[in-house]
Amino acid sequence: MGQKFQYDESGATFFYFLLSFLALILIPVTLFYWPKKKKIDLEEEKKKCQCPPCITKREHLKTSEPWRKTKNFFIKLGIVLGWITLLFIAYKLSQFDYEMANFDPYEILGISPGARQADIKKAYRKLSLILHPDKDTGNEKEFMKLTKAYQALTDEEARRNWEKYGNPDGPGAMSFGIALPSWIVEKENSIWVLGLYALVFMVALPIVVGSWWYRSMKFTGDQVLMNTTHMYYFFFHNTPQMALKRVLMILAASYEFDKRHNSEIEERQSDNDEVPMLFRKLQNLNQKNKQKPLCYPYSIKARAIIHAHLSRIPLNPETLEKDRRYIIGKCPYLIQEQVNCVNQLILLGYARRVERLITTEAIENCMKLCPMIVQGMWEFKSPLLQLPYITDDNLKYFMSKKRQIKTLQQYAQLKGEERRSILRNLSDDEYENVMKVLGAMPYIDFQITVEVMDDENPTDVTTGALVTVIVTLVREDMSTLFGDETIKEVVDIEENGVDEPKEGPEHEPARVKKPAWMKQKRGGKKTKKPNRPTPKPVTATATANAVKQKVEDSPNVSTERKQKPKEERKARVEEEESDLSADESDADTNERDNKSSEDESGGQNIDAEDDQEWERFRKLHEREKSLEGKSKVSHPVHCPYFPHEKQEYWWVYIVDRKSKTLLTAPYYVTSLVDRESVHLKFTAPSWSGLFTVTVCLRSDSYIGFNQQKDLKLDVKQAPAETTEHPQWDFEDDEQENLLEKADQESEYTTDEDLPEDED
Q1: Pick from 668, 714, 749, 695: which is nearest to 471 by CA?
Q2: d(CA 650, CA 707)
Q3: In angstroms, rounded to a whole number, what is the distance separating the alpha carbons of residues 605 and 599?
Q4: What is the pLDDT of residues 21-70, one digit of tens each?
Q5: Residue 539: exposed, middle, or buried by beta-carbon count in 10 A (0-12, 13-18, 19+)?
Q6: Longest C-alpha distance within the chain, in Å?
Q7: What count of other Cβ atoms lies within 10 Å of the Cβ of residue 637?
Q8: Closest by Cα among 283, 278, 212 to 245
Q9: Which has the closest alpha carbon to 307: 392, 224, 367, 378?
């Protein structure tokens, strides 16, 4: 078969390539980049806070990007032009395909198939006199078709091939076309083609790759300057116990606020007058610090602006207020980078056995600073100031002889009349706005369970075992506490020392569990609880059933989850019947009865193993789900003094309060919409005993919403045959080094270390 490689003379093949290329680009670009006009939802607008700071913030967000309309216009124009080009190319190709599909040289010349050469030449001369472009009746396009038809039939072999195979080249001819027009290889255009090639591959491509490489080397994965991260490492390594104001100083020294490292920073001549005036209004700025870069002008200016933000001091809207919005908007990302840096330094200190380890005080002060920045208030201020219209003058109404309202949760639990009487100085619209904001704030149910993964008995913690703490967070709105008298009854019962609630259907809601923050503060004199006896060993099946029963009886579990599957009920009934039959069986039963009993017992074991396998499968599914990409959408935060929209995020981690050491890396929960489970893992101590660790939950958006729970671990000595866990294939000398390292790293709190007046 003959093969011909040639450039596309007519341009049809090139148009096919261009059409496919444009379609591959235009379809995703249109879907993702076409500007979409946000629909104004009246219901959502009503839910938003209508206090003056929030209204001012929303107006500023609308006008903060004046170039957005122009940008959207050019994006729409480019996409529309692209689609017009695509449609034009598709139309040209459809016309070309139609002409090629209807190309018949005999029909064009007006002769019958099998005509002689003389008849073909005669017909061609006759039509060429009419269609020639130099004639008045000429048509260049039709004349080209006429010429092509004549050329296809003048060759005798070509005409026979056309008559027999419908192809002038014969049955085996095959041609390959290059999807480029022929003018690309023409000599007079070579200089332009080479110039375009050099521009794309020798200039544009290296610039794009170099810019990407420069940004990757300049910024971290969270788009924080590498110089800023190195500065964080330096200061936190040199100050293991860092105070909160010291953390604020380091935050203000971030190179994101320096004009030499960030071109978005504005430096004005008016700063020489306005910044010193701001210094006089503030205290404890520590301007005489000589450490670099803490003493640089940009760092002192940023520190003063952050102090003014936390003190809610108004600034010049044309100068320092613009700087405040930019600096404060960057702070949450920088604080998260600080948390990551401190965590890495703690892990590095454990690995290198550093004597002066960084304590949890530094990392918790970083976390404490984030909600301060978001809410624009100092930590020692009342959490009630996070509500709209509430000022320092209103706080006196919350602190009376009858009631001492210090937290938002306490205020939410009051009856409606009491809540309204406290804010009687507000109008009805203002009070309704306060309740709207308070009702949308988070109410977190914080539960923890302990398991030992990849072990025969997941309920027993042995020395050196890998302990997994499953933290379950259930988020509800604070409006669920409005006027809830049952919670108040539970508090009164526990404070008055009543052992059991009253019976009767009218007192049935008194069984509702008390909120977690009230469990941490108990009134009255604290007494030491007597030591509890060591629990008896239980089987895995019994433990699983107990855990299921506890989860089903929990008030936070929905009604649908309380309904037990039929398979579980059936397995439990069969197990009880088998136990009963085993107790009543006689020692002198025949061999058949024994065999039947053994088969029944084997069935029970199979059911128990199936339950355990299902439980393990569920846990593996949760772990795989936790490894998926994190969502950044949870619930909007009421933060009128923060320049951008903010979502609720949380830190979850485990610490040892006695030695002030961090046992697990802080897990950043960014997708807590309704329910979230977090798996925290750490290694149990290498010696047996009763140890106490603390599981902490911290908010990065609200002040006064932190929770913590003490977790007591009864660590037992591992059996001799299981001292070396099969899942860790270490050599003997390596395992001894690891155990020695665990002894030197941290001391866990035991019951003997707790004060006598503590539970």
Answers
A1: 695
A2: 11
A3: 10
A4: 888 889 988 988 888 776 655 666 777 888 999 999 988 888 877 677 78
A5: exposed
A6: 125
A7: 22
A8: 283
A9: 378
3-state SS of 100-155 is HHCCCHHHHHCCCCCCCHHHHHHHHHHHHHHHCCCCCCCCHHHHHHHHHHHHHHHC
Domain spanning 442-476+566-581+599-759: which CATH class is it, in words? Answer: mainly beta
The count of other CB atoms within 10 Å of the CB of residue 40 is 7
Cα 614 to Cα 598: distance, rounded to the nearest angstrom: 24
From residue 335, give the alpha-carbon distance in Å to each of 192, 302, 374: 53, 15, 11
Picking from 157, 162, 155, 161, the residue whose alpha carbon sits closest to that of residue 105 is 162
Tens of pLDDT, residues 308-332: 999 999 999 999 999 999 999 999 9
3-state secondary structure of 710: strand
Indicate the class that CATH gives domain 226-441+477-500: mainly alpha
140: amino acid identity, one letter: E
Q: What CA–CA distances, in Å, run from 360 to 469, 660, 754?
A: 19, 5, 19
> For the whole prediction, is pTM greater than 0.85?
no
- Tell me how far apart the terminal alpha carbons of the chain are, to the nearest angstrom: 93
CA-to-CA distance for 729 and 319, rounded, in angstroms? 63
Number of H helices, E strands in the chain: 27, 12
Query: Hey, what are 687's tokens?
Result: 């010696």
> What type of residue sits at position 280?
R
Instruction: Give the Cβ contact number of residue 305 at 10 Å.
Output: 25
Closest CA to 241 of 369, 359, 340: 359
Segment 643-702, tens digit of pLDDT:
999 999 999 999 998 888 889 999 999 999 999 999 999 988 888 889 999 999 999 999
Residue 679's SS3 state is strand
> How large is the C-alpha radius of gyration of the chain?
39
* Distance from the Cα of residue 497 to its chain's centroid: 45
Instruction: Give 553-601 as a DSSP string.
Output: H-TTS-HHHHSPPHHHHHHHHHHHHHHHHHHH--TT--HHHHHHHHHHH
Dihedral through CA 210, CA 211, CA 215, CA 217, nearest 10?
Answer: 10
DSSP codes of every residue in 191-239: HHHHHHHHIIIIIIHHHHHHHHHHHHHHB-TTS-BHHHHHHHHHHHHH-
